[in-house]
Write a structure and sequence with these properties.
The complex is a heterodimer. Chain A is about 35% helix and about 25% strand. Chain A is an alpha/beta fold. Chain A has a six-stranded mixed sheet with strand order 6-7-8-3-9-10, sandwiched between helices. Chain A has one domain: P-loop containing nucleotide triphosphate hydrolases (Rossmann fold, 3-Layer(aba) Sandwich), CATH 3.40.50.300. In chain A, helix 3 runs parallel beside helix 6. By secondary structure, chain B is mainly α. Chain B has a domain of about 210 residues. In chain B, the strands form two sheets. Chain B has a two-stranded antiparallel sheet. In chain B, helix 1 runs parallel beside helix 5, helix 2 crosses helix 8 and helix 6 crosses helix 8. The chains are: A alpha/beta, B mainly alpha. At the A-B interface, helix 2, helix 3 and helix 6 of A face helix 6 and helix 7 of B. Chain A: One of its GO terms (molecular function) is ATP binding. Chain A: Belongs to the ABC transporter superfamily. Chain A: This is ABC transporter ATP-binding protein. Chain A: Pfam families: ABC_tran (PF00005). Chain A: Keywords: Amino-acid transport, ATP-binding, Cell membrane, Membrane, Nucleotide-binding, Transport.
Chain lengths: ~240, ~300
């Protein structure tokens, strides 16, 4: 691997007087699927939001594709290839499924490419095709998660950030969502996956970071983390 | 003359103007939950600029048919109002985007007063007559009278509304506007420049407002620096009646309010035995506003689609 796709150095984030992220280093190489696990309130979501410019960092540096992102406005990140599937999905409830997908391609202007990618998303998620004319607010939670992921893919991201894709979903739906995540990874999309379900996340990822109260406390291959006794006790419930 | 049909016609004409203005209120509210109380002043300035422009052309001895003179005035007024709407948002509302909701509301009232006073300085405190450039052609319609001007107002209002609906429902900008109104943070993630979308909302609403202002001035043959206050309040009432934030609701609310006001004032004298005359017509808008706020605060079409978690 020549140069990492994402390099985060000593990133600090503070808001409302709280230091949510206290100087972390992260690196994600091209084509990797990296999991970021940790307890509630460890700073995982804050980290993701900072990576896409929704929160401005208090210190440190973020290099994406070799370029610093500090000067980008938040709406410019997606054009650079960085997109977040937010916690709670954030679909546009009163847009149709098809319109939600088109919103994912908002920064693109290649009509044939967009049409092709919509078909690709419908191929990954046949349920969305059946419901393409339906308002997104009427979909089930699992369908909304599929839509949120499909919408993010529509931007043809270089790095896809996923925040708690399993949240609030039935186990069988979670399995389905993770199957799709593996399929997308197999297509070569680089991903950073934040998950409370640490076992599932580490079984899916190549590498993992463990975050505790704003700091990265462990970084290793997913297999090693799964075998780590301390991790098993703290996060895997074994 | 048939009073019922006559008032029906008047109500539809006035209602279609209310609807155009109400769309400006409801678009801004839909995107940033702000009541832009300065919108009425944008309507007024549209009327004033048009009158000034026509008088200027007449003063220069320009020989053009009336409708073309009116068009020239409109083409001047629309960009002025658009620029004004754009500027108001940039100067008065954008710095308060993250402030408590009361702050921009008070600012809106402040902007409205500033614009009224400014208009007084420029155009004086007297009524400005609308130049008599349009021939008055009256048609008989089942015993009621309708003029060419009224027919033109009605058709133009609905053409503009149709254009707006096309823009909102069928174009990329419209889709971005709807997405922004539903979830601005995620719209930003998708690459929508929220500031541009909000500016466009003000600009489009102001253009419709300018046209509506000219319609009001042409229909009543006059304009005044304070005209924006009452027409703005009524259009706001129409937007609330239809369900604020809902475009179709603004159209329905506008037409309904026009009809209620027109029919109500037409029969008010008979109903009260001559105690109250038709010059009390303004009370209808506010009776409607109070009734809606008490009995159906979300408005006629303000119900949202059920959203599952």
């Amino acid at each position: 691997m020549s140069e990492a796709l994402l390099q985060v150095k000593d990133l600090k984030v503070a808001y409302g007087g709280i230091h949510a992220v206290k100087g972390i280093d992260l690196e994600i190489g091209h084509g990797e699927l990296v999991a970021l696990i940790g307890a509630n309130g460890a700073g995982k979501t804050t980290t993701l939001k900072t990576l896409v410019g929704m929160i401005k960092p208090a210190g440190g540096e973020i290099l994406f594709d070799g370029q610093p992102t500090a000067r980008l406005a938040s709406y410019q990140y997606v054009g650079r290839g960085l997109v977040l599937v937010p916690e709670g999905r954030g679909v546009f409830p009163r847009l149709t499924v098809a319109e939600n997908l088109l919103m994912g391609a908002h920064v693109r202007n290649d009509k044939p490419g967009i049409a092709h990618d919509i078909e690709r998303v419908y191929h990954l998620f046949p349920r969305l095709k059946e419901r393409q004319a339906q308002l997104a607010g009427t979909l089930s939670g699992g369908e909304q998660q599929m839509l949120a992921i499909g919408r993010a893919i529509m931007s043809r991201p270089k790095l896809l950030l996923l925040d708690e894709p399993s949240m609030g979903l039935a186990p069988i739906i979670v399995q389905k969502i993770f199957e799709i995540i593996r399929m997308i990874a197999a297509e070569g999309v680089t991903m950073l996956l934040v998950e409370q379900n640490a076992k599932l996340a580490l079984e899916t990822a190549n590498r993992g970071y463990v975050m505790e109260s704003g700091r990265i406390t462990l970084a290793d291959s997913a297999a090693n983390l799964l075998a780590n006794e301390a991790i098993q006790k703290a996060y895997l419930g074994e | 003359m048939d009073i019922f049909i006559q008032q029906l016609i008047n109500g539809l004409i006035v209602g279609s103007i209310y609807a155009l203005i109400a769309l400006g209120y409801t678009m801004v509210y839909g995107i940033m939950q702000l009541i832009n109380f300065a919108h009425g002043e944008i309507v007024m300035i549209g009327a004033m600029v048009t009158i000034t422009c026509i008088n200027l052309l007449l003063g220069l001895g320009v020989q053009l048919p009336g409708p073309l003179l009116l068009l020239a005035g409109l083409l001047m007024a629309i960009p002025v109002s658009m620029l004004l709407g754009f500027t108001i948002e940039r100067v008065a509302y954008r710095p308060l985007r993250r402030a408590p909701r009361l702050a921009p509301l008070i600012t809106a009232i402040g902007v409205s007063i500033v614009l009224q006073q400014l208009a007084m300085l420029i155009w004086g405190r007297n009524y400005r007559p609308f130049p008599a450039i349009l021939p008055t052609v009256v048609h008989d319609f089942y015993g009621a009278a309708i003029t060419d001007l009224q027919i033109a107002i009605f058709i133009l209002a609905f053409l503009l509304m149709g254009g707006l609906f096309f823009l909102i429902e069928r174009t990329k900008l419209g889709r971005a506007m709807r997405a922004t109104s539903q979830n601005p943070d995620v719209a930003g993630l998708m690459g929508v420049n929220i500031n541009t979308v909000i500016s466009m909302t003000f600009v489009i609403g102001s253009a419709l407002g300018a046209v509506a202002g000219v319609m009001v001035a042409a229909n009543y043959d006059q304009a005044h620096a304070y005209m924006g206050f009452m027409i703005g309040l009524k259009a706001f009432t129409a937007a609330v009646l239809g369900g604020i934030g809902n475009l179709a609701g603004a159209v329905v609310g506008g037409i309904l309010l026009g009809l209620i006001e027109s029919l109500g004032s037409g029969y008010l004298g008979d109903l009260t035995g001559g105690f109250l005359g038709s010059h009390y017509k303004d009370i209808f808008a506010f009776v409607v506003l109070i009734a809606v706020l008490i009995f159906r605060p979300s408005g006629l079409m303000g119900e949202r689609v059920a959203e599952r978690a």
